[in-house]
């Protein structure tokens, strides 16, 4: 912890908050304070905005190959420091070290991917249909960006936004979640070491999000907002962005259905369920929330899943052999406790887990609930914890209707051995992504995002850089 930056990163320099305010960073495994970091206010946001605006014009003119090589160097540094970054992430967020190392690799890959996309930004040209003008299309950076990241994937959510912004030629202000600022500050230090010019990336850690973000969005100099977080906060930010017509991309909440048909390979289905539910202790927007299992296999599926979930070892993420770390904080754990209690009151059977352990930290055991009533609160609430809620179905049309009966539409999971059914059901699900016989959909090379109230736009893949680029059309008379 001693080498981790704890100050704001503005204009290429480390600095305290203007009013010298700090905020604690807690270890969710113990409840103890790890350190204090700078707690930015409105004046600090103004300084960061000025740095980003001043750097924008020159950065936009930088050769794509230069931007590409900076990202590539940053990728290599991240890979070299995997263990250091993993320990830092586990300390502030709680996930087991094995998962933290996996996130470091995932995060680094966004920089490698967008280092390759930086040199492939293309326009176009051609004579228009009336023959009078030639059309020249060029693509330009949208301008200074505000990037807001969540606590659940503190390194990867940073690189997923910073990578395409750098590749496109945009400057930026990054505001990480107050629970997990250290990974973002470490990332800023790595990018500076990799040669990123001063002012291109500014990191503002704060517990005063409204004081920092609202003036930036309403002021007119920030031209792009990229946000990952809850739908409720997303709605607020969209309203704030409307005044200055700030371009937005939103990766919001999820309520993923996990559908197991009668012809599914149950080994694959249970393996997929463990990934879709237990990745990151269930604290993921892609986490399977509602398990719809055909009545002919539901008892067997529930038994197998409970056995696998019950065998997981819960404890501090730094301890050898631990599979499940703590939840992010006591507020998050209390929410999970309330949702499980509500389901049980409405008739759900607890196959495993369901009781909060005594002692320090924010731990909650892997839990499987059977016979969950459709009006239980966890059916229309993002659980964000290690709880699998199982319901039964008998008819394909019925389960599709129930799966789509939600305002969210990020991801769905379908398990069946029938190709026709696999394609038919996947196409009818109102989601942006489908995991077909797999519990993992996220990949830097694939477009990530949802429909309905799960968001706007896509991150990653070939289209990820589009969110940070504008088209300019130039009409040239044909001589």
CATH architecture of the largest domain: 3-Layer(aba) Sandwich
Query: What spatial order of strands do you see in the largest sheet?
Result: 14-15-16-13-12-18-19
Count every beta strand, where a strand is a DSSP E run of 2 or more residues. 22
Rg calculated over all Cα atoms: 23 Å
Number of helices: 13
Broad shape: globular
The main β sheet shows up as: 7 strands, mixed
CA distance, first residue to last residue: 66 Å
Query: Can you identify the CATH class of the largest domain?
Result: Alpha Beta
Uncertain ranges:
none
Structural class: alpha/beta
Amount of beta strand: 15-25%
Rounded mean pLDDT is 97
CATH superfamily caption of the largest domain: Aldehyde Dehydrogenase, Chain A, domain 1
Q: Would you give the CATH topology of the largest domain?
A: Aldehyde Dehydrogenase, Chain A, domain 1
Overall structural domain count: 2
Residue share in helix: 25-40%
Explained architecture:
- This protein has 479 residues and is α/β, with parallel strands linked by helices.
- The protein has two domains: 8-252 and 454-475, Aldehyde Dehydrogenase, Chain A, domain 1 (3-Layer(aba) Sandwich); 256-443, Aldehyde Dehydrogenase, Chain A, domain 2, CATH 3.40.309.
- The chain is built from 13 helices and 22 strands.
- Helix 2 (64-80) packs antiparallel against helix 4, helix 2 (64-80) runs antiparallel to helix 5 and helix 9 (266-278) packs across helix 10 (298-310).
- It starts with 7 loop residues before the first strand and ends with a strand.
- The model has no long low-confidence stretch (mean pLDDT 97).
